[in-house]
Amino acid sequence: MAFFLCFFFFLLASSSASACDRCSHQSKAAYFSKASALSSGACGYDSLALGLSGGHLAAGVPSLFKSGAGCGACYQLRCKNPTLCKKEGARVVLTDLNPNNQTEFVLSSRAFVAMAQDGKGQQILKLGIVDIEYKRVAREFKNQNLAVRVEESSKKTRLLSNQIFVSRGTNRDSRC
């Protein structure tokens, strides 16, 4: 019985330590110069993505993308360069897969600049890649709106493929 209890507590401790979804992590982030590259990404948001979180979009590595289950997840990113970056950083919404293993995130240029202090946006863009600290954050769903999009694949017989999007406020005001 004692062995079983020790084994159970070991499993409990190891699973909670490795499955920390809201813990802070250290990594790097780069940016795309065109947000449309992220909006037409693997999550399939298309034009709806540009209105999510004020255009603060991100592509994440497979461990964040989670085979599509990570789509729409919100992250708080903070650049670690204190001379260029704000302490609070920026919130982004995951809209695409980043297969590149050099950075965990590729951001829209709007999101990348949002991490910078006022007047230092061009300086942070010149860096191209920055060290970041990030964590997953909850979305707020006050005044919920619902959007339904029927996919092109629905033209095939006996197949109805659609996506349901929930956002706060209008799409332009939707924030993480």
Automatic annotation (TrEMBL):
InterPro entries: Expan_Lol_pI, Expansin/allergen_DPBB_dom, RlpA-like_DPBB, RlpA-like_sf. Keywords: Signal. Gene3D superfamilies: RlpA-like domain. GO terms for cellular component: extracellular region; plant-type cell wall; plasmodesma. The keyword Transit peptide does not apply. Residues 1-19 form the signal peptide. It comes from Lotus japonicus (Lotus corniculatus var. japonicus). This is Expansin-like EG45 domain-containing protein. Residues 40-144 form the Expansin-like EG45 domain.
